[in-house]
Specification:
binds phosphoenolpyruvate, eight-stranded parallel sheet, elongated, 14 helices, alpha/beta, binds manganese (II) ion
């Protein structure tokens, strides 16, 4: 699948040409003093071009700090006047959009709890129709690529070409060190089906705690992402929301300095030649693996026929357990991760069972 979005290249409109794009600022606008002191510090950092702050805060439970509302937009204006930073905030409905446009906010983002809802996204799209503004769309809270793509399409359809996707991770029941699981496959798939869309990472909401942010931020750059939206507060531990994941402007500066920005393509000829050779080897190996998998499936089908003729069940748990234990030991001795091998074999086994089921002519239960 590919999706056809009309997108203006990030480099063409982001006048801080020092990519990656960095949007930084507190989770929430709390007071004029907090906003101005944070923004003043951040503005000393030439890697940062946008100041973010949540004016309306979508909180999971009522009773938590839910944002200051429109009054905070005056503080945003003061930030722009005093620091020259461009402004970014979250909008969840048409009223928010209208207030932000009046206040001169330069970038509006659609949060994870809004991008999940096509009615809300459409309402926002209708409110920004005809406006030359940058819109960023966070991934929905659940790992549903279609919903993320759909939200981007709705915004693009009303003529917004300064469009960015934000990877902020996904809620999950599974135990995880992260507040939101990164599930990198999703932004990678988005990049694959729509290479022209810039994707930035929100390591703050993925990590949930300060200490995990550098790992996520570096990984995002290594996945060829185009920048960050990252939370920074003048006094993080006193923040009214998301205190555990905000960095002081000084710590943010150290983080940004520590990140290694790699390039997608090198102009160095020797490097390109060597890379081409290695990629040729990978291509050949992938062909071999595909052929072997095809042969393996053919043999599995033969076994299926044989089992059918002798009225033997497809699944034989003991054989499967022995096989998996043996293969994992073998793979581990060859330097492969046990977890990877286990997942790989499970996938292969599932496909074998599917093909044998077809042979047995048993229709799968719906
Ligand atoms: C935020 O960026 O402050 C925010 C609420 O994020 P998310 O929509 O990703 O939860
Ligand atoms: Mn936050």
């Amino acid at each position: 699948m590919t999706i056809d979005l009309t997108i203006k290249d990030l480099g063409a409109w982001n006048d801080n040409m020092n990519l990656p794009l960095v949007i930084a600022g507190p989770c929430s606008a709390e007071s004029e003093l907090q906003m101005l002191t944070t923004a003043n510090e951040l503005s000393k950092n030439d890697k940062i071009s946008y100041f973010r702050a949540g004016v309306w805060k979508p909180r999971t439970r009522p009773g938590s700090f839910e944002g200051i509302g429109v009054k905070a937009l005056d503080w945003m204006k003061a930030v722009k006047e005093q620091t020259g930073l461009k402004l970014a905030t979250e909008v969840a409905n048409a009223e928010h959009v209208e207030a932000c446009l009046k206040a001169g906010v330069d970038l509006l983002w659609i949060g994870a709890r809004t991008s999940v809802n096509p009615f809300s996204v459409q309402e926002i799209a209708d409110a920004i129709k005809g406006v030359d503004i940058c819109i960023a769309v966070k991934n929905p809270i659940n790992p549903d690529l279609q919903l993320w793509v759909g939200a981007l399409e709705r915004i693009n359809k009303v003529g917004i070409t300064k469009l960015i996707a934000i990877h902020r991770g996904f809620s999950s029941y599974e135990k995880s060190p992260f507040r939101n699981q990164p599930l990198w496959d999703y932004p990678i798939e988005l990049k694959t089906i729509c290479p022209q869309i810039p994707i930035i990472c929100d390591p703050s909401h993925i990590a949930g705690t300060r200490d995990l942010i550098p790992f996520i931020a570096q990984k995002a750059l290594d996945m060829d992402m185009d920048g960050f939206i990252i939370e920074s507060h003048i006094n993080p531990s006193a923040a009214l929301s998301d205190a555990a994941q905000q960095l002081s402007p000084k710590d943010l500066d150290s983080l940004l300095k520590s990140l290694v920005v790699r390039i997608a393509i090198s102009k160095n000829e020797e490097f390109s030649d060597q890379l081409d050779k290695l990629r040729d080897m990978i291509d050949e190996l992938d062909e071999d693996i595909t052929q072997k998998l095809s042969s393996r499936m053919e043999i599995a089908e033969k076994i299926g026929k044989y089992k059918k003729d002798h009225n033997v069940t497809i699944l034989q748990v003991k054989r499967w357990e022995e096989l998996i234990a043996h293969r994992i030991t073998y793979a581990s001795a060859l330097g492969l991760s046990k977890d990877f091998m286990k997942r790989f074999l499970k996938l292969v086994h599932k496909e074998s069972i599917r093909r044998q089921t077809e042979i047995m002519n048993v229709s799968p239960k719906k």
